Amino acid sequence: MPPASTAPRIPVEERLFSLVLALLATDAGLTKNEILSTVQGYRQKYSHSGDNANLERQFERDKDDIRDLGVPLETIESPGQAGNNQSLRYRIPRGSYELPSDIVFSPEETTLLNLAAMVWREGSLSGESRRAILKLRSLGVTTTEPVLGYAPRVRVREPAFDPLSTALEKRTIVKFAYLKPGEREARVRTVAPLALVQHQGRWHLYADEPESGATKTFLLRRIVSQVSATSQTFPAPPADTTEKALAELDEVWNAHTAVVEVQPGSDADTRLGKRRGASVSDSGALELHYSDVNIFADELASYGPEALVVTPQELRDAVKARLERTAADHG
Length: 331
Description:
CATH class of the largest domain: Mainly Alpha
Shape: globular
Helix content: 25-40%
Strand order of the largest sheet: 7-6-5-4-8
Number of strands: 12
CATH architecture of the largest domain: Orthogonal Bundle
Order of helices and strands: HEHHEEHHHHEEEEEHEHEEHEH
Radius of gyration: 22 Å
Number of helices: 11
């Protein structure tokens, strides 16, 4: 097994997809150690005799990300070992992940879905995934290969990711146009990229902005131009920069709370109820954390009448504006 420093880089969407496939492949669930030592994206950095603390933190973040994507990840305590995190088992129950039984497709739609599924048969279960399942079986874990229809729900990386990653490696200052919510025109930003981090399923750039002298976080989806590298370079950032960036994003996430009423048994109830940190208030409404009011408003508006924002007013107004715009666009 190559050391972590020389292990091949696995794209995050491939790692998350492999994790979902592995957790779908067993009804009994997998322990953290089984996941880290067998699943694509973890096993390359796993040390059988060394310290895997960084890899465990990565797994904790990945769990939050796939839950935010609506994947029903469950934890199961081993009998007689309540409270022992190392013995916890993780699984994705197929019944909660499959389509509801009341959804019916026409013969034409079924044909198209079957054709798409044929394409996914080999693509969704890669050679790496098959080898992971074989290794799990060798450890005595009962598995079943995920069947057709489990297409990935992870987001692809934004176009800005690769040039920013290159600039980060070369420590090169870059320029790009950035459009903030509420602004009509994008502003050109000149920054020194310090870290690329994924938080709640979205990629962020943590960077120094020489013009303002501040360190800021930029959402990659709001970069609306090509990323241009300059001839200027900057010193290597501190080793804990990534952890600092994630900690600041977590602080923003925890500081914003919304109260949302959802229709019981609806898609909104299922997906929002499984968000990280979600809780149920005395009135039965969901209390949810979020980091960006505009992104969260987009998500809540997509549920239509299934979700009603109670507080805060800013989020309520943002969702209302989106629904009114949708109604106007459709006459």
